[in-house]
Specification:
This protein has 88 residues and is mainly α. It is built from two helices and no strands.
Length: 88
């Protein structure tokens, strides 16, 4: 019975970590879509006005989110490996 409790605890933690990682992926995709939209607008206005536009560079935010997601995935893989050892 104790083994089942440990299993359930670890599975619950993995579920929470997966949820957080999916939220980060959603944020990353929204940032990427925003940057793509901004790039299209800049291209449009630079062609029409023949002048440069200001652009809010979010590349650092994207890099940070990408690194964080990679770390989350590594942690999740480790936790799943531990969970397999508890179950078997």
């Amino acid at each position: 019975m104790e083994q089942r409790g440990i299993f359930m605890q670890k599975a619950k933690r993995i579920g929470g970590d997966l949820s957080q990682t999916f939220l980060k992926l959603e944020q990353l995709s929204m940032s990427s879509l925003l940057i793509f939209s901004l790039l299209l607008l800049i291209l449009f206005f630079s062609l029409v006005a023949k002048q440069s536009s200001l652009f809010n560079d979010k590349s650092m935010e994207i890099q940070d989110l990408t690194l964080s997601i990679k770390q989350d995935i590594s942690s999740l893989n480790r936790q799943i490996g531990e969970l397999q050892h508890v179950y078997y």
